[in-house]
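To: structure subgroup
Subject: Chain for Friday's discussion

All,

I'm putting the inputs and outputs inline so they're searchable in the archive.
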Amino acid sequence: MAAFLRVPSSAYDVNNKLHLVPCSIHHDGPARVAEFFDANVKKDGDKNLTTSFRGRPLCGESFPVPCGYTGVVIKETRKPFTEEEDRHITGIQTFNQFTYWNLDREATANDKIRQTMDWIDIAKVIHRPVEDDSSQKSVVEN
């Protein structure tokens, strides 16, 4: 099985805001997020954000998409019938920062989203090429 991602030029807009909320929203269309959700977000301390969604308190944190990466919201218009069938996915929006929200608790270092963002930086370091002379120096020094 292969996966093909197509991102049309209409999907690129650097002003998009993305909110990752801890619930399922069974709506696939426009919503007045700026008017009813963004307008009520409050900054609580250095990085923590608070708001509510349908009366439920949410605590969140914003993250930039790491340098060299582009965030893409994807949509699969037709699910394959078998695992061997190719998948065709379309990027419908891009974003350069996002806010993730927890229900009833502040963001912590144990949150999977934060760990994922930390892993990107860790992976760059551990997978970068090692120069021969620097690796030999570390062996000799130990």
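Points worth raising on Friday:
The chain has one domain: 3-108.
The beta strands are 3-6, 18-20, 42-44, 48-53, 56-64, 71-76, 87-95, 97-103.

D.
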